[in-house]
Each structure stands twice: as structure tokens, then as C-alpha cells.
Write a structure and sequence with these properties.
- It is a single chain.
- It is built from four helices and two strands, in the order ααββαα.
- By secondary structure, it is mainly alpha-helical.
- The chain is flat, with a radius of gyration of 33 Å.
């Protein structure tokens, strides 16, 4: 944007608002040019199999005759630990699935045993507390009114 502003800023025939608009247009054009250049390089790398992704063919381990061939895309790290976040996300997703399964199993056991759900019990307790708070604040308001008289 700064480069575009310096280019457009030299024109004495444009107002400040027009210069800002022109600079924005130039900056957008530059951004598109960079994206197109990046795409060209990535496509070139893909065609030459020089990219960070590689397609690997291997025999299907579930096929007893090993006639079926499967393809798998493998990502090559530029440095050790670059893709560590993928492993962390996969582990967290697995933990979430295990938690959900444990909650579902507990709810099923509770349902079979005839127990009510834990959520309902909590709501009833909260409702009682809310009502008590209202009663207290109502009594305090009455006391204040009497003091003012």
C-alpha cells in the first residue's frame, strides 16, 4: 500500500480521496500478481514432483493377494516439527470422541437405571437459587422504601 501511495502521490491532478482509492486499486493488483506468481511456481513444482507433497503407491494390507494398489499423499516437512500441530489436533479430536462416548455410555446406564439426567438436577437447583435471590432483593427494596418515607 505504501508503494502504491508513493506512485499515486506524485499526481497533482488527483484529490487525496482519489489518491487513496487509486492506491488501493494498485495494491490489490499487486496482491493478485503475487498470488498468480505463487500459483505458477506451485504448479511447476507439482508437475516436477518437487513439492512438499508426494503421492506414494503401496499394496493394500487388507488384500491377501496384494493385487490392489492404494495411493497416499505424504507431506515432507521443511524442518523437524513443522507439522506437529497436525498430530496435536488429531490427538485432541480423539480425546473429544472418547469423552463423548463416555458421556453417552453414562447417560445410557443412567437411563436404564431410571435416573434422571444430571442437567435437569442442576437446572432445578439453579432455579431455587434464583428465586431466593429475587425474594431477598424484594425484601431489601421494601426496606428501602420504608426508610425513604
Amino acid at each position: 500500500m505504501a508503494v502504491a501511495l508513493t506512485i499515486v502521490g506524485k499526481s497533482p491532478y488527483l484529490s487525496t480521496a482519489q489518491k487513496l482509492v487509486q492506491a488501493r486499486v494498485y495494491a490489490q493488483g499487486l496482491t493478485l500478481a503475487v498470488l498468480v506468481a505463487t500459483a505458477v511456481f506451485e504448479i511447476g513444482d507439482k508437475n516436477e514432483d518437487k513439492g512438499r507433497w508426494e503421492t506414494v503407491k503401496y499394496a493394500d494390507p487388507n488384500d491377501p493377494e496384494h493385487k490392489q494398489v492404494l495411493e497416499k499423499r505424504v507431506h515432507h516437512e521443511r524442518y523437524s516439527g513443522e507439522d506437529q500441530w497436525r498430530d496435536m489436533v488429531a490427538a485432541e479430536e480423539q480425546r473429544e470422541k472418547e469423552r463423548a462416548a463416555a458421556i453417552h455410555e453414562q447417560e445410557e446406564r443412567d437411563r436404564k437405571a431410571g435416573k434422571t439426567q444430571h442437567k435437569k438436577k442442576k437446572e432445578h437447583k439453579d432455579d431455587g437459587k434464583k428465586d431466593e435471590g429475587k425474594e431477598k432483593s424484594g425484601k431489601q427494596d421494601e426496606g428501602k422504601k420504608e426508610e425513604m418515607k
